[in-house]
């Protein structure tokens, strides 16, 4: 960044939402409730899958990492959003904006690759049940989880550093409720063709590599399920994939609505409302989906809750 611009652009203004008065307070309450539900629900999954030895399996190890990703993702966006709604403090420092953007890129990338890893886990469990323990051993799961977390690091650091070293020429209003790449890029007063091209390539790789793995995994799962002679066996095999499939559909459909539509097809405020679907709603729904669609999690949750209640009623 040029020295003159560096001294001028020391902070940004997040435009937030076009709500005022009671509507703004109502919206704040709704977002706050969903935020707390996200933290509690995902924390509960982490605690249950960590404490219960029965859930020490590859699927739940990856699910635990997904829950942690959702918590980190929510914490990087929602607290500032709530501040904007409650006290209308729309100022965010230059460094905080850069940090928020890099965290968003990191955690979204991590979630994409974790969903791909979870699809592969289900494929191995259904298509190669006799070799499942060998193929999805502890080291393999650890490498898949660490790889998912690290996949977004070079992308997040590289593009954030590049973007925030471009000249802004005094422009400092981010037309969003958080620092995302597109609204920040709109403030840049320089040629961004190369940056946009590389961002497009990175997004295609981040989205398509896991999505291809998911698609191939489910095609193989479907082929394996169709070989099962009994309808009961087919339903039982598919039931183990139901929660993951719902989460994948929810994640890709909401993110796709926000980023793959033509730029002029939605108003600014409508784009922000669509962005809420994958920044606030999806992280809240994921633990609910896994608890509702997964019998093992429901049983362990009831057992865990029951044992805690008995402890408080009869501590001796």
Tally of individual domains: 1
The helix tally amounts to 12
What is the first-to-last residue Cα distance? 65 Å
CATH homologous superfamily descriptor? Rhodopsin 7-helix transmembrane proteins
The rough form would be described as: globular
Largest sheet: 3 strands, mixed
Number of strands: 3
Integer-rounded radius of gyration: 22 Å
Low-confidence stretches: 1-7, 309-316
SS content category: mainly alpha
Give the oligomer, counting copies of the same chain as homo and different chains as hetero: single chain
Q: Give the C-level CATH assignment.
A: Mainly Alpha
Main location: membrane
GO molecular function, one term: olfactory receptor activity
GO cellular component, one term: plasma membrane
Membrane topology: Multi-pass membrane protein
3D architecture notes:
The chain is 77% helix and 3% strand. The protein has 316 residues and is an all-alpha fold. It has a single domain, classed as Rhodopsin 7-helix transmembrane proteins (Rhopdopsin 7-helix transmembrane proteins, Up-down Bundle). It has a three-stranded mixed sheet with strand order 2-1-3. The radius of gyration is 22 Å and the shape is globular.
């Amino acid at each position: 960044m040029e020295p003159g611009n560096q001294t001028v652009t020391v902070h940004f203004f997040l435009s937030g939402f076009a709500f005022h008065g009671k509507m703004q307070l109502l919206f704040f309450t709704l977002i706050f409730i969903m935020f707390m539900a996200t933290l509690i629900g995902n924390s509960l999954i982490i605690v249950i899958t960590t404490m219960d030895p029965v859930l020490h399996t590859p699927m739940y190890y990856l699910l635990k990492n997904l829950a942690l990703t959702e918590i980190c993702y929510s914490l990087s966006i929602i607290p500032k959003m709530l501040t904007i709604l409650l006290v209308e403090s729309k100022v965010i420092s230059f460094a905080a904006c850069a940090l928020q953007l890099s965290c968003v890129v990191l955690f979204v990338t991590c979630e994409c690759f974790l969903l791909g890893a979870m699809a592969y886990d289900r494929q191995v469990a259904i298509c190669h049940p006799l070799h499942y323990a060998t193929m999805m051993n502890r080291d393999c799961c650890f490498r898949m989880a660490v790889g998912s977390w690290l996949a977004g690091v070079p992308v997040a650091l590289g593009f954030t550093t590049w973007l925030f070293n471009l000249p802004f020429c005094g422009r400092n209003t981010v037309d969003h409720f958080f620092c995302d790449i597109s609204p920040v890029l709109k403030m840049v007063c320089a040629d961004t063709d190369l940056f946009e091209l590389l961002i497009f390539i990175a997004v295609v790789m981040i989205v398509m590599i896991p999505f291809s793995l998911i698609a191939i995994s489910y095609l193989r799962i479907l082929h394996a399920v169709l070989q099962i002679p009994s309808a009961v066996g087919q339903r039982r095999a598919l039931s183990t994939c139901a929660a993951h499939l719902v989460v994948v559909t929810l994640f890709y459909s909401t993110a796709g609505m926000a980023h793959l539509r033509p730029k002029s097809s939605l108003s600014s405020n409508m784009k922000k409302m669509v962005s809420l679907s994958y920044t606030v709603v999806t992280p809240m729904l994921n633990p609910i989906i896994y608890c509702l669609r997964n019998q093992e999690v429901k049983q362990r949750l009831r057992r865990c809750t029951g044992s805690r209640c008995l402890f408080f009623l009869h501590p001796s």
